[in-house]
Each structure stands twice: as structure tokens, then as C-alpha cells.
Amino acid sequence: MKKGFLMWASVICFSVGLLWLGIGSVQAASDETIKIGSTEPLSGTFKDIGERYLEGVQYAAKVINESGGLLGKKVEVIPIDSEMKPDVATRKATNLILKDGVKFFCGGSGSSVGAAMAQLAEKENVIMFSYGMAAASMTGEKCSKNFFRACGNTDQHSFALAQWVAKKGYKRVAMIAQDYSFGKEATEAFKKKLSALNPSVNYVAEIYHPTATKDYAPYVSQLISAKPDVVFTPNWGNDLTLLLKQGRPMGLKARFAVYYVNDDVMIKALGNDSFIIGDVGVEVYMLSIPSKKNQEFIDKFYKEKGYYPSWLRGKSYTATMFWAEAVKKAGTTDVNTVIKAWEGLSYDGPAGVWTMRECDHQAQVPFWAAEIVIKNKFYKHAYIGVATMIPAKDVSVPCNETGCKMNK
User: Fold this and answer.
1) What one-character-per-residue DSSP string does 252-319 give?
2) Which of 21, 144, 274, 396 is the most buried (most CB within 10 A)?
């Protein structure tokens, strides 16, 4: 009896030892790397958008690792296919938090996904940052100490486009957007700013459509009937491509003021440069930003990849490098310390100086405006001309007007 007891006790002790050895091995592996989960649609209609965003994050990690790492550790990017579904994104992220101890997440596609990830981040005390989820509410009434927006939001973006429309003196303005929080907030912000700049403006159409729409004929017909001078749209991805590709042949001749017109993939997919020549866009990153740091970034990327870090890649790269600066300043991966370190921090990168505002975790960033031209130094097809800067202060929303009441 005693001999049997001793044998079982030995087995139990050996098993416990193996368990602790396993835990120690996982911990050791975790200590050697800083993991960051990149939450993007890597399948479905917006797969191309997600893949380009992811590539920018991965390239930033490569640059960091080749420069000695972050706090002496390797940065590991973990792709997460959100499928553009909030529940899918948060389920997969939760699994990484609980099983792999991931403390940092990022994403650029889908403000609804971003809002859900921000809630998860606060619940689990991890950090979620975005380089493209732009709904102003995420740093407004839905703000969180665990969420940072390392790019512009709908208020800033729309304000920048409104300035261009007002400067051109357009009187008849139409708007068309995707029917979810991002599209609606972008449109409301545009109207608010443009009305303040030009009280005599006449809004001749305000149209919302489902994301991933295939047939734009009904919406284009409404726009044509409204006879606008200019059409504002925050559409992105395939929703922007099809709007232009179907709208122009139907006779929609008005110029477009577009959030994401500097998308080379979208322009090429149009198959006809005349569909987009003369349209204008504003963004936080453009290939044509005339700065030394941007040119150095482009040259290095092109030398390694053989193509340009256009649009999404540039945005996610810059935002990820901004995050890395916060971790460097913190000197640790402790979430609360990194949060404090990022607040008020400035990063001088390819797109100018970005500063993370403490009150709402909304980056204060300059925007860059450019018109689509035939001749450009990047592509054989039409693309953006030289970008001009719209200072951050000109598109900023005061803290007391955002609706953010952050619990710290």
C-alpha cells in the first residue's frame, strides 16, 4: 500500500514538473518576442484591403527587427482574419490573449470591428490601435484608455475635404456613403464643416448604400438627377471602384471629393483613366508627400519589394512605427506603462509629425491633398500629383467637443 502510494506520488510530482516546465518554456518564448495581432479582413470582398494593411505592419516589424528589435526583442506579427465581423475578430483575439499572452493588437478595416476590439481591449487590459478604422465615435463618446487611433478620424478627414470643396466654390454638393457608422459619421462631419465654411451650399443628395454593393445603377441615377457640381464619398475598396466604374459610363460627370482616391489598385481596376482624372483626395499618407523621410521610406521599400508602399501600406507602417516609439519610451511591454508613454508622444515619420493626444487618444496629424493626374512618377496609369499639406491644427476637433469621457 505504501509502495503504491509512493509510486503515484512520484508520477504526480513528475507530471506537475512537466507542466511547470511547459509553462516555463511558453513564458520563455513569450519573453523573447513582442507579439502584435493584426486584425484585418484576409478573406472575402475586402481581402485586398486587409492584405495591404497587414503588409505595412509586417514591413514595420521587419525594419524594427533589423535595427536590433524592440527593447532588444523580436517583434512578431500575428495575422488575424476578422472576416469584417466584430464577433469573429474578438473571438480570435481573445484566444490569443488567453493562450499566447498577446498584449497588442492593431487593425485598419471596419470601424464596427474596431469598436468591438476596443471594448475587448479595455476588458482584458491590452492595447488596440488603428491606422484606418476612422469612425470619430471611437475616440469620441466610445473612447477607451486601451484604444489609440494612430491616423485621422472621420471628423478630421471630412474637415480636410470640406476645405477643398469650399475653396473651389462649389454650390451643389451630393454625398454617397456606405450605410454603417463610418459612412454616416464621415458624411455628417463633412456637412458640418462645409456648412460652416460656406453657408450657401446646397446639398442636393445624401445617399447611403450597403457595404459590398454590386449594382450602383439606382444610386448613380439619383446622383445624376440631382445635378451636383461635386460628389463627396468616403467609400473605400470595391465600393469605391464600382461606384466610379459604373457611374462614369452612365453619365455621372461631376468631380469626386474622395477619402481614398490615392488607391493605385482601385485606379488600375477602373480600366479607364478618364473615370477618375481630376478627382481629388486627402489622406494622412500619400506616396507623393514631398519630404526626405518619405522618399527614404519609399526607396528602401521599393528596393526590397519591387513595388511601392502606396496608401494602406504607408499608413499601417507609420502607425506601427509610432506604436513602437511608445513601447521604447515605456521601456517595458507593461500595458499601463505603454498607455502612459504613448499619451502626448510625437513621432516624426514619412507623413510628417504625428502627436498622440492624451485626452482622447486621437492622433493629431496633418492631411495631404492631391488631385488625380495622368502623368506621375509612380505608375503608368493615372495617379495622384504632388501632395500639399493641410496642417493638423486646421482639421482638429477640440477635446471638449469630441464627447470623450475616458475612464483611467
Assistant:
1) --SEEEETTTT-HHHHHHHS-GGGTTT-EEEES--TT---HHHHHHHHHHHHHHSS--TTHHHHHHHH
2) 144
The stretch 258-276 carries a mean pLDDT of 93
The CA angle 333-336-342, to the nearest 5 degrees, is 80
CA angle 46, 52, 57 (to 5 degrees): 125
Q: Cα(57)–Cα(36) distance, rounded to whole angstroms?
A: 9
Structural domain boundaries enclosing 201: 155-283
Q: Indicate the average pLDDT of the chain.
A: 92
Residue 67, φ and ψ in degrees, nearest 5: -100, 15
- Best CA proximity match to 241, nearest among 256, 223, 227, 251: 256
Residues 274, 325: contact at Cβ < 8 Å? no
- Residues constituting the chain: 408
- Structure confidence by residue, pLDDT tens digits, 347-380: 999 999 999 999 999 999 999 999 999 999 999 9
Check whether residue 301 and residue 239 sit in a common domain: no
> Could you give the angle at which helices 181-197 and 111-124 cross, rounded to 10 degrees?
110
Query: Which residues, in sequence order, are bridge partners of residue 232?
Result: 175, 257
Cα 284 from chain centroid?
A: 10
Helix (H) or strand (E) holding 89: helix 86-100
pLDDT digits (tens, 9 = 90+) for 309-342: 999 999 999 999 999 999 999 999 999 999 999 9
φ and ψ at residue 397, rounded to 5 degrees? -110, 125
SS3 330: helix
Is there a single domain that holds both residue 189 and residue 300? no
Q: Could you give the C-alpha distances from 28 to 237, 327, 389, in angstroms and in order?
A: 41, 20, 46
pLDDT tens by residue, 237-264: 899 999 999 999 999 999 999 999 999 9
In a domain, 25, yes or no: no
Kind and range of the H or E element at 206?
Answer: strand 202-209
For residue 19, is it within any domain? Answer: no
Q: Is the torsion defined by CA of 180, 181, 184, 186 positive or negative?
A: negative
Cell 516555463 identifies what position? 24
Is 303 among the domain residues? Answer: yes
Last residue of a domain, one of 365, 381, 399: 365
Coil, strand or helix at 335: helix
* 352, part of any domain: yes
